[in-house]
From TrEMBL:
<feature type="region of interest" description="Disordered">
    <location>
        <begin position="82"/>
        <end position="103"/>
    </location>
</feature>
<protein>
    <recommendedName>
        <fullName>ESX-1 secretion-associated protein</fullName>
    </recommendedName>
</protein>
Amino acid sequence: MSAPLEVDTSVMRRVGSDFDSAGDRMAGLQADAPLGDAAAAVPQLQTAAACNAARTTVATEMTKIAGSARTYGADLRSAADRYDATDETSGRAIDGVGIPGPR
């Protein structure tokens, strides 16, 4: 037999907020900026074109990663809300069941 399932929705909400914050920090990193600086330093070389192409890729991927972190955070908080609501509804339904007395 397995242990009972225990869900701490406050932890889910806290971790969800942590993912939101991480997404915000990642969005602000500007990880592509050094590639732009490198391209600007050697504009006449093919290296500049490669740096600019890489810069676009890095910027696009960082935007996706930051968005995914924020989405995951929102999903965790939403799951915690749904769990609490289901738990409360189920508890009320169980409380509403009449238990017959002894005969």
